[in-house]
Hints:
- The chain is an alpha/beta fold.
- It has a single domain (31-271, 322-334), classed as Rossmann fold (3-Layer(aba) Sandwich), CATH 3.40.50.
- Helix content is 39%, strand content 8%.
- It is built from ten helices and seven strands.
- The strands form two sheets. It has a five-stranded mixed β-sheet with strand order 1-2-3-4-7, sandwiched between helices. The chain has a two-stranded antiparallel ribbon with strand order 5-6.
- The N and C termini lie far apart (52 Å).
- Residues 1-26 have low confidence and may be disordered.
- GO terms for molecular function: hydrolase activity, acting on ester bonds.
Amino acid sequence: MENPKMAFLAFCIIIAPQIFLMVKAQNNPLVPAIYVLGSSSVDSGNNNYLNTIANANKWPYGIDLNNKRGRFSNGKNLADFAAIKLGLPMAPPYLGLSDSDRGQIKTGINYGSGSCGILNTSRVGDCLSLEKQVNYFTSTVKNDLPKQMNENELSDHLAKSIFLMFIGVNDYNPATNQHITDKFTGPAFADYLLQQLFQQIQTLYDLGARKFVVHGVSRCEPDDQEGTCISRYYRDKLPAKLTSLQASLSGAFFTMYDAYAVYENMVDNHEKYGIEEYQNPCFVIETQVLCPDRSKYHFFDKYGHQTERSCGIAMDGCFNGTFCTPYTLSQLATIH
């Protein structure tokens, strides 16, 4: 029979330190804050406060998050999992905060807005374009954060925080982009879109931002010159553009969230994750039929929004895998 004292000693030596490190990690986040800019894949409820049909303030959105509405998923989204991985609270929606609340939060805010894009013209009804989101962040930096920290502390806070920029999909969607892609070739539109994106990144950099995760947008086969999915040009051009931008902006670091790699992994390895359906959505909007087990689905609805389970898998791969390059989210958080 096993000696109880020896078993307890083994627990103290092997298990207890691991528990201590887990608790310590929760009490000591890797970064001061996460600031989220983007569209529906990261919107945590801003569209609830706007006049738009592109909202998630109804059943069954949020059904596995205590029915908290506003996320375009059954539960936590990509931004939520990024915050959790970094040891931070999930960033609240900017429009859901009072002026008083905004002056007290220093662990991050979510400015994301469903149906919006990099371009001001990409939208369905009211939404927060990237420019508007950056304007709101500017107000955060100039009006809210100074209530909690001095100038040096603010500079350090912004330099160490993570800026999650998950936007651009709607600029390629004919339902939201006013058919602007008809006016460009695929490569030319990618260049134009990236130019507009980098103008906003420059503004964030000038305000003090230094660490960026930028969405690769496309789920298309990279470099597929025979295909019809023009968003691949954006994804193909982005890594080199980010490398060039990092070289020109002193102290800045950029990594790309590779949407293609995420989807390819799901197609190839879905069984490993217990995902039984990676093509059809869990929630059929037309019939209002919801699948009984959301954990077995990759997509939550027909618009390509991911389930909570799928978002968790994707952010695991970004934090400590190959979905974010050249830096993992973990590396980006600790780089100086």
